[in-house]
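Hey, I was hoping to borrow your eyes for a little while. No rush at all, and the record is pasted right below.
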Amino acid sequence: MAVTLDVQRYLRAGYKLVGNHSAVAICRWTRSALRGERLCYKSWYGIKSHRCLQMTPVLNFCDFACKFCWRMHLPGRYQVPRGWRWDDPREVLDKSIIAQRLLLIGFKGNPLVTRERFLEAMFPRHLTISLDGEPLLYPGLAGLIREAKERGFTVFLVTNGSIPARLRELLKKDAQPTNLYLSVYGPNREVFDRAADPRIPRAWEMVNESLELLGEFRESRTVMRLTLVRGLNMVEPEGYAELVRKGEPMFVELKGYTWVGESQKRLPITAMPEMKELVDFASRLSELTGYRVKLTDDKSRVVLLVRDEESWERNLKMVEEWRRRERELDERILSKIEDFTMEEHGYRILRY
């Protein structure tokens, strides 16, 4: 099947295309943090939004066609063509860093952006593998995670869990991400199929198999993520509770659907749940699982459940250790740069 890639549409959406199949985009929280304003909810895990590199190694490829997805559902998206040429993980990371810098270089002259924050943004310390497509489709995923961690990045991987064999490969190749997010789109097969609209056979079984693997990712924070849509999959907390018990993740994140992008063509604005609905749903899930409501973020409409206090303490220790490591890396690199320019640093300093 031919691949249809509407380049101009992606560019208009703010994407910077990278190599043969990857892309980078700047989220609102990166811009906000650069101006000294609000951080995104990932600050719960120690992430500074202006140092976050949001990217995908599989632009335009996904094996689900989720009703609530803000991405474009284009012809050829659901199957990687036979013989597709995949870029090397090191090249993907190098070019993604350059793309990030090109997207943010204009902030250098913004009076609201301090020199320190700008320089930190030019040397991102966190890689979010998300944005578009399904990352498990990228055969070089283990190499990308290892390369990023070797350079001092924390790595968040967001997956729909459709390829448990790739998750096993991450374990085998010592490529456990800092956070492993497994998105679950329904409490049972019927709701899941309606919400996720999978384009592969046995998708429900594959997701459940991936859930059972979470316990093996002992170096990662494991997170079960629920994107909840009123009138679609925000039902049957008992079914979600059963899945939580199966995966036993450290955290459960309940994220309210937002009526943006291409999803506006598939769902009504009334599909957006209010924060109170999310909190009520989370409270019921808490009753059923023993997980506790720990934090909420009204702006992003996220509720965080934690398995136990030991899991929360482990999170805080991971944050503390990362802060220490970040300071060491910055002292080694940033203290030596008086003025950042793309000509001097942007295309050259890649493996920092």
